[in-house]
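ERR on first pass: missing label on line 2. Operator R.T. fixed the label and resubmitted. Corrected input:
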Amino acid sequence: MEDGWTLATILIKVGLYATSFIAAGTVFFLITVRPNGPAIHGPTRLLSGLSALIALAFTLLYVAIQAGFLADDGLAGMVDGDMVNFILDGPAGLSSKVLLFGLITVVLVSFTPISAPPIYGWIAGMGALFIVISFTLAGHTTNGNIPVSAGLIAVHLFAVSFWLAALWPLYHQGRHLKVEQLIATAERFGKQAMLVVPALLLVGVVLSIFLVGSITALFSTSYGLFLLGKITLVVLLLSLAALNKYRFIPALKDGEVDALNHFKRSIRLEVLLFSVILLITSILTSALELPTG
Amino acid sequence: MKSILLSICLFFTATTLTLAHSVVTSSTPENGARLSAAPESLDVSFSKLTRLVKASLSHNKGDTVTLAISTKEPTKSVSFTPVPKAAGNYVLKWRALSQDGHVLKGSLTFSIAEPK
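pass 2 clean. output:
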């Protein structure tokens, strides 16, 4: 049962990460990329709202599982008031409260009519920022060993959510809308990504150096090996993104027959890679000790 | 895609998970100690500030007692008293929260010899 709590924490965190990042990222995507027309705007907002709703459930479940782990008293511990209060009083509780606030804001705005004033979009953007910031308030990076760790993590997670959440609107356009619309959106996304991806990489490298502490630890500890696995998958992800930007989208513009299928397959593979990256991240943040102590 | 999935599975099976235990720097008695007499107290020191939430001591003949925790504040060392005097094998288990919000678990075992 003891290791069951760790396993449950890992699995819940994968769901929590995925749905929270999609909820926040779709808002960032709508604000920055501004895809044309209700045919893409509406479904993307729906995705945002539904993801935020599911993330709300995951957040509550996460707190309950942490309480159960702490109580060490079977499933009953998940609703033990004292244990729940211990969790809510700590950094995980603060993180969960800020996350809930951000998610509820995104849910409320997502289900307003598309014709609502633009201010609603900025309110959703504030909610999305709260979602991102919530993940900087607990975990290994809050130990005080890393300078400006909260800022670095926030930039990293903003970039991750922006990228992850863009995949579905791009894929949706590729399946259901005109190729011209997909090209226009993909090119706008590509321009934003040229700013976001280097920030993601730079911050990822800086955080990795501080977290692992040495090259030796990268190869000789469980934490280091898992991080190495994550870095490898990120390199694969970047390769796919580069293929999309420099090969498949130009090929789509040139009217090449198989270009759309290549693009859609590439997006599906990116989703798979993101899923495994989130699983590794969840293991890193839930079940492994930092080599640097 | 299948080869990528296979590589990922191999990576996970080849790496051993070190589950998140609290880092104990020292304890009295030491883990696995065989004592000739019952200790006056059970003392555990942690590498970082730790908020202890729950502790229990189990005897091999079935009794488990919940131990009183002297402070609710984060601490680097904790002491449990009184300690049962009966001979046998004991397991001390605790649950705690780290400063960064992780739930920590830990245990130590010791035995007290029958009086001669």
